[in-house]
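Our preliminary data section would be incomplete without showing what the modeling component actually yields. Below, a chain of 137 amino acids is followed by its predicted structure, encoded as tokens that our downstream tools consume directly.
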Amino acid sequence: MRTKTIILSIHPKHIEKILSGEKLYEYRKRIPLNIRYIVVYATTPIKMIVAVIEVESIIKDTPEVIWSKTKKYAGISKEFFVKYFTNHQNSYAIKFKSVLRLKTPKPLMSLGNNICAPQSYTYLKKTDEELFDKLDL
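Predicted structure:
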């Protein structure tokens, strides 16, 4: 059985806006619709797990509709958004319910030996309770 927790690689400049509350949505070209938690992996130069996001909802629609619904808390420019979704008919906006910053960033290996930074997303095999224990949440 799949868990409802995934790892997402996110650039540190976007993570700062997520942690400050300026960015309440994460945009993706594809994402599973049944996720509950996102383990946030900060890409280079940090290369660590820095937060866990509880997902409130996921919106799937055209990029134009997604932008009109989420632009107030996008945390990115319209130009960046449009460029990201060029040639895509569907887009996804993940709305955050809560964001928990880890007290101490953790390496990916703290979740297991076979975990690597995902290009898109990776499901975690651990239960939420096991995950939260490993991340000291």
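Strands lie at 5-10, 25-28, 37-42, 48-61, 91-106, 121-123. The chain has a mean pLDDT of 91. Preliminary results of this kind motivate Aim 1 of the renewal.
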